[in-house]
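User: Could you check the structure of this?
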Amino acid sequence: MDGYEILTRLRAVSDIPVIAVTARHDLRSRLHGLNLGADDYIVKPYETAELLSRMERVLHRSRSPER
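Assistant: Sure, the predicted structure tokens are below.
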């Protein structure tokens, strides 16, 4: 099972925040992951500080009152 399938199955039962971390860097792959419900998408290799910042933003959005 690839990440797209996991994301599809997860979204069928949960709205838990998801950041896709992948080596797939082309625009089509990024858009597909986001369209399947990823809250953010980061391509390997990445800097730890960037991942932590994205995690903070996604968690902040998931706790906001409008959600």
